[in-house]
Amino acid sequence: MNLVEAIAARHSVRHYINKEIEVEKIEHLQLLVAECNAQSGLHIQLITGEPRSFGESLLARYGKFSGVTCYFAMIGKKSDLLDETVGYYGEMLVLEAQRLGLNTCWVGLSYKKISSVLSIDDGEKLVCVISLGYGATQGVNHKTKSPHKVSTSDVRTAPQWYKKGVECALLAPTAINQQKFKFTLHEGNKVSVKAGLGPYAKVDLGIVKYHFEIGAGAENFEWA
What does the alpha-carbon distance between residue 188 and residue 177 come to, in Å, rounded to a whole number? Predict the structure, then answer.
């Protein structure tokens, strides 16, 4: 499964079965976490065998989560770019997990912070977590906006790579499926994207940018 196929196949999953993730898959994801941290300066941690964050949380029950014992803790130094960076690299982990046959869900509030299993240094912040495991289902499709509603440029006359980028961006998970982002195609194959207003909008922006890069091909454009 390539990344475009992973984007199409991946849906948010909140219910997980009692099946342990294989050691080789955990090791593979730990290596990717280390690579993401080295590239981004984040302090992402993969937590395994830890049922309390969701099992002891009233918010988790409200969010209808069950069976969660593994998750990525998205941690980094406080800055204006932290949320966007978390979204970009978190989605990198999400899609790789999908390629491994695992399921995920971005979680903003519906969990309990268990400080004893996390390493959060001074000046750092836990932005959110991403649940991980074998889903009871593969999730369901959600309604998406039309490409022209998330682009200030005319998608019909835009290059094919731009169209593909927008299409992949529309399959990105966003908080409460709000899809409040706007792309613009500039001269010289430069692209900009703005986040809308709303909960976790900057995290959404990072996720959407990663999806756009996959669809458009990073070699075809530059971020403006």
Answer: 32
What is the DSSP annotation of 125-172? EEEEEEEEE-BSS---------GGGGBSS-GGGS-HHHHHHHHHHTTS
Distance between CA atoms of residues 27 and 22, nearest Å:
9
pLDDT digits (tens, 9 = 90+) for 172-220: 999 888 899 999 999 999 999 999 888 899 999 999 999 999 999 999 9
Per-residue model confidence (pLDDT) at position 57: 66
Statement: residue 62 has pLDDT above 70: no
The DSSP symbol for 6 reads: H
Distance from C-alpha of 157 to C-alpha of 1, rounded to nearest angstrom: 30
CA distance 209 to 172: 9
Contact status, residue 186 vs residue 192, Cβ threshold 8 Å: yes
Q: Which of 89, 94, 97, 87 is nearest to 39 (CA)?
A: 89
CB 213 within 8 Å of CB 221 = no
Task: Give pLDDT, residue 164.
Answer: 98
Please count the residues of the chain: 224
3-state secondary structure of 64: coil
Name beta bridge partners: 131.
71, 105
Distance separating alpha carbons of residues 185 and 110, to the nearest angstrom: 36
pTM check: above 0.90: yes
